[in-house]
Amino acid sequence: MNPYEIIIRPIDTEKTRFQASEQGKYSFEVHHGANKLEVKQAVEDIFDVEVEKVNTMIMPAKRGWRSYRGPWKKAIVTLVEGERMDVFEGAI
Known about the structure:
Elements: H1 3-6, E1 7-10, H2 14-23, E2 25-30, H3 36-47, E3 51-59, E4 62-63, E5 68-69, E6 72-79
Antiparallel strand pairs: 1-2, 2-6, 3-6, 4-5
């Protein structure tokens, strides 16, 4: 699978920005069928950084009044100390 098919989008919230700046942890929405090794390789290829570990989880579906979001997979990537990604640069 192509690295750009595995990493769908970064997750940009206040909590993820804090984790990125203070703890070196970055959150991404990833392909539902991707495993931890594929996520690690994709992040290393796309952002040219060294990944220490990857945690994945399936986020539950949400239903709204007129909308539905199905379950999706989230990955929290921890970088080796001293490494940094500019994922949220330019975002307001």
